[in-house]
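step=predict obj=Telomerase reverse transcriptase n=1182
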Amino acid sequence: MPSGDMTRVLGILGSLYRHVETLEEFADHIVFREGQRAVLIEPTDTTRFISFVRGVLVCTDKTLQDVPSCNQISTVPELLAFVLNNIKRKKKRNVLAHGYGYTFQDRDADQFKFHGEITQSAMYIHCSDLWKRVCQRLGTDISKYLLESCSLFVTVPPSSAFQVCGVPVYDRVSMSTGISRFHLGYKRNGTTRNSRGRSKEVRNGGWEFQGSAGRNRRKDGGRDTGKRKGDEVSLGGKRKREREEVEGDVCLPGKRRCTQREAPTVSSGTSDRKHRTLETNGVKRPVEVISLTKGPTQSLQVFNGSSNVEQVSAEMERLRKPVEKLAGPGRPLEAVMVTIAPAESSKQVSNCTGNIEQMSMKTGHRRPAAVVPRPVEEQSGPVSATVHVEGGPSWRTGSFPPLPHSQCFIRTLGMLYGGRGMRRFLLNRKRKSRDEGPRRLQGRDLVRLVFFEGVAYLNGTERKPERLPRRFFTLVPLFCQLLRRHRRCPYSKILQRVCPAVGQGDMASLLPQHSAPHRVYLFVRECLNAVVPSEFWGSDHNRFKFLSAVRNFLSMGKFERMSLAELMWKMKVNDCDWLKISKTGRCPPSELSYRTRVLGQLLAWLLDGYVLGLVRAMFYVTESMGQKNALRFYRYQVWAKLQELAFSGHLSKGQMSELTLAQVTSLPKTTVPSRLRFIPKTEGMRPITRVIGADAKTRLFQTRVKELLDVLGVCVRSSPSLLGSTVWGLTDIHRVLSSITPAQKDKPQRLYFVKVDVSGAYDSLPHTQLLEVIGQVLSHVQQELFSVRRYAKVWADTHEGLKKTFVRQADFTEDTVSSTNMKGFVMSLQREGKVHDAILVEQHFSTDIHGKDVLEFFTQMLSSCVVQFGKKSFRQCQGIPQGSAVSSLLCCLCYGHMENLLFPNVSRRGGCLMRLVDDFLLITPDLSQAQTFLKTLMAGVPRYGCVVNPQKVAVNFPLGEWGSCPAGVRLLPLHCLFPWCGLLLNTHTLDVYNNYASYAGLSLRYSLTLGSAHCAGQQMKRKLMSILRFKCHALFLDLKTNSLEAVYSNIYKLVLLHAFRFHACAQSLPFGQKVGGNHSYFLNLIWDLAEYTNHLVRLCNKGVSLGCKALTGSLQYEAVELIYCLAFLLVLSRHRPLYYHLLAPLRTRKRKLEGKLEGLRLARIRQAATPKMPEDFKAIQA
């Protein structure tokens, strides 16, 4: 068996589960009810079986308390079928049940038989003789426990694994709570400063070993006399729980003791390998470790060694040796498990113990640790494996008791696409009743809706008890008063006064008539003051805090959210007399916690029910094409007129024909209509057509569309020429330019550029031509069978911690192990270099897709393309929906077919042709070829529906026979920076720059989705790191295709824009946190960004000497760091009061770096930073 290193996989699992051990180790400490110990490996076993047992990892959060019989009372297929049916019946999440279609409708069905197709993970167990032997030796009860209650992973050499059963491991990896920094146990002894002046924590470089009994145990003469409760599980489903003190929605576990051993200080550096010492029983041993991060924030440090699948258990045994002293003489060593705790970067954001403690004193409510912003590095011990359940307010979800405040979110998506008037407003709805029929809401109804029943109460459902608790008696007249005020409130007059608008005019005059978020807030504030009784607030302080939260919420972006914890921050609970049963007397903590929960329910309803409902009723809220996530608030009269103008213009193109009522009723039952909506642009409206629905017919249609995309993707991979000159992104553009740039730099020659944009590409594709093109693509595969596999991948990124991604992969069906077996599939991915040091989780696998069925579906999809707009239905006679998943590929295949027909030899003369969907760019040294290309496209290609938009055509050469430049065509100089798809290309050297002109007048606040997170500082760091990874692309930083001057300039502008993003993130921190309260964290964040940028620059220039500690090479790390100092000083000095504590260290480091670099290197940096603020950046709004 090939050697491998599973230490990274072990580290990932150890950071997510409390207990990680091999199947052999799991079986070694099992004692059956009959008194005998489990024997999994016998002397006569083959090497194959021993390797298999040592390559299966058992991961749990609970230890096994007692074990029933060792008897085998069922076969492996029967046991597997019973477990699958039981999982589906109880609606549990388990990898085994992915894709299993048992609906448990027939309650008399045989539970020991399969009632649907099973996944490869289940088939892997079903068909394996090794698993059968394991089940025979462990017995049915243990086997059932492993499949139902544990997470099993099978290691696949050389360095990966896949999950067989258990809750999907990706559920434990959160992408919204910040960077998952994890380490192998360190103890924070203090802080020191390195040469850059950054705060650096002194950390332990060794492992930390903690077990279930090692965390909280009573000692008696060095022996353990008790076990930790709550960490044990019985096979019968009963759990022993430690008594917990409950305060409202917060569970406070008992105290936990953590044993750690101090180790020598580890200094930060840039080397991947470090030599550290591990102290074992008083003896210090040198250990070589691999660090996944460079610098002061160490992450996932693991021992280096050659460990293949057979050596995994030996590796874990070696790691457990230092804990013999911790285990104690009376405790089995197997119970002490390797635990990897999270090492989140530096400290958390500011005001960790100030504002939050102030809030706690006011409310008496002790907030969960996940909510309270606290110093990140003050955490020690293992990461909690609890997966936080997130949801909406209880009145909407109907979940009572409600979720904790930190897990309850109100999303801005709830405001979108409304504008239908007050008829469907919540307070205007009627409650359905079986006896009385629909009736208007009363005060008692609102009390039950907000605090007990949820919105389902309006449909007639009512839970017991019917009598309200005594505490809520006083709320009934208050809600009655609220309803009376609502029915008398002149909403329309207030709206017209605060947000005036004129609903007449042309599109150009109506598009700017959207209300600013501040104007919408003024309207909402006046309505709240007029409708909500003052008794609800309790005090002006609470009212002002709520209004401030409303203002912040209305200013958020499209995908952001606000937690109930933020909404409740600094609220004075005891000011609200309606919460009190007794107006005098002592208020115990439990009572105060309950009051806090009830007040949270009311405020959540006011924001999510009243405010959002009011905004949806009075405004049509939509995104725009100009700003990525910014929301526009249109009065519904204005939006109705805009839609009418946009739709009449869209209909005038002759692409749709209206269907009569008879034609609609005669449509095939398989027809799935699409819905048309418009998104405002700068000078018009863009139509978006999407299939929306959750019914079975819609889901089947969307599945078939994905299968069409998969099959076309397989055909394109086997014959790339079908796509013509299509490029899908920066990587493809870099690949194409790399083929011509070296020759241009060696022998410069005149290059002629032509940029052409097709007008309405999606809407103008003729159906006949589409059928012809796609028919040719699928003609050779109609008899082929395709397989589709969906899987998730979890891995540890060097700088960004734990990450996950979901992959959908299609290919021709092959009867090979790699295509039908999950283990073979993982091995094939590793051989191809696509996966390493990762954990894969299968989600779906199918092999029943035929090429002829896909072509038949595509033909049917085009012929029965029905679009709904309002109450009318239309048949789309031309074009394809813009919102479909397959639209871009269909467009590229059609234009690729056109290119192969009209421009077959365009790249044979030393040039290249690129097309990003419908944006063409020709680069050629042949002037006549450039003119012919432009003339052909300007004349249009009706066969393919290709009509050029002259306003988006640009050239850098005289147009010859045209004499003068046609109207709208831009004529640029021969040597210039040529714009195309957000890029600027030097027409002489082919250097590539980013075009920042598109950021003019835009707010970077809306280019980031921040929202509410449990750890705002980590969320900010994760966001900035991930953006940096996408922006530091080889297209801009590769010295083989760009000059050194261009690379320096690209780095400076990239970092300068990142400094603006840093400011935007810092201004959006929750709970009133500021940079000045924890400046060391943010200073370290800047240095981490500089390190990551330096790392990415080197990845883009593999094989090129950029510089080392001797200050040799063309681009040193010190140069990158100095660029960060210059850029951040320029941006942050504009807001001196906010970043006062960061400016001094940045200036100090800047002076040191300037003294280090000197000469030409320093001059190169100053050249890139001149002017300090480029023209494109002056109009950017931070």
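step=describe
Residues 354 and 1077 are 9 Å apart (CA to CA).
step=end
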